[in-house]
Amino acid sequence: MQRCDYLLSQLDVLEAESIHIFREVAAEFERPVLLFSGGKDSIVMLRLAQKAFWPAPIPFPVMHVDTGHNFPEVMEFRDRRVAELGVRLIVASVQDAIDSGRVVEQKGRRASRNRLQITPLLDAIEEHGFDAAFGGARRDEEKARAKERVVSFRDEFGQWDPKNQRPELWNLFNTRITQGEHVRVFPLSNWTELDIWDYVRREELELPPIYFAHTRRVFERDGLLLDSETGFANRGDDEPEFEASVRYRTVGDASCTGAVKSNAESLEEVIAEIAATRITERGQTRADDRTSEAAMEDRKKEGYF
User: Fold this and answer.
1) What is the pLDDT of residues 35-58, one digit of tens each?
2) Positions of the region Disordered (predicted)?
């Protein structure tokens, strides 16, 4: 018998694992949804979902939890990409939750709508009856990821408790839930930021232009360069704005997402920059995650991530 040896690259292994997760969840759950922000991680998840079910269309909708404080370039990309794929887009609006009195907007210079996303997300999950939500969390993002699994259980209140995590033996996922409960599913659990960028290059994926170096009006706060063009970051009189060549490592609420100084205008230059950095993506770009090491874990317990 002729023997054939197959050598898979690291990206091939990661891709195969993620595709398996998508297919397993689609088979086990009745109403999954993919959380899509227009950022690089959710763009990669969309491509993986395409491959998982090709030539059939993606069999579940995508949902964006819209803070209303988004970068215009990202919103334009989100709408165009969803239209190209022909998938249904559901928007869970923070502004609608504020207007209805479901949440109260923060005040002051450091006000952010980041935490306010929890309520409209859980409301949308309940309204549409979703029992599984794909998220883009990676293993290198923050310490709380070490306590989670690929399939992360949420109780009837949408809360995460590390003590309730089910064991995952090999690639066997525990998908049993009762009425009112749901799970968050992380197909990128074993990916890093560098893996994401390598995959974007290999698959020739389009990204919003703010991921690459461009000139932008910014101001400095607590060592972060915050956007002053959209007006969402509540710049004070003692925080002068200036122009700089920057790019974004992540995209989110413009009020608390910082840019990094960069001249990287191409994929190759960005990848070289990421490979050389020793600062995590969230540590360098997210003001609200700097308040404490437990900030992300607290939000997971509240039900957002």
Assistant:
1) 999 999 999 999 999 999 999 999
2) 282-305
Cβ-based burial of 238 (10 A; exposed 0-12, middle 13-18, buried ≥19): exposed
For the residues of the chain, what is the DSSP string, one character each? Answer: ---------HHHHHHHHHHHHHHHHHHH-SSEEEE--SSHHHHHHHHHHHHHHTTSPPSS-EEEEE-S---HHHHHHHHHHHHHHT--EEEEEHHHHHHTTSS----STT--SSGGGHHHHHHHHHHHT-SEEE----TTS-GGGGG--SEEEE-TTS---GGGPPP--TT-------TT-EEEE-TTTT--HHHHHHHHHHHT----GGGS-EEEEEEEETTEEEE-SSSTT---TTS-EEEEEEE-SS---TTTBPBEE----SHHHHHHHHHH--S-HHHHHBGGGSS-TTHHHHHHHHT--
> Could you tell me the pLDDT band of residue 285, with boundaries at 50, 70 and 90?
low
List the structure tokens of 201: 């290059």
**What is the distance between the alpha carbons of residues 79 and 71, in angstroms, rounded to a whole number?**
13
Query: Would the pLDDT of 286 be above 70?
Result: no
Q: Residue 36 is encoded by which pair of tokens?
A: 């899509």
For β-strands 214-221 and 224-227, DSSP reports them as: antiparallel
Burial 176-187 (b: 16+ CB within 10 A, else e): ebeeeebbbbbb
Instruction: Go through the chain and tell me how many residues it has.
Output: 305
Q: Is residue 17 within 8 Å of 47, Cβ to Cβ?
A: no
In this predicted model, what pLDDT tens digit does every residue of 249-271 receive, in sequence order? 998 888 889 999 999 999 999 99
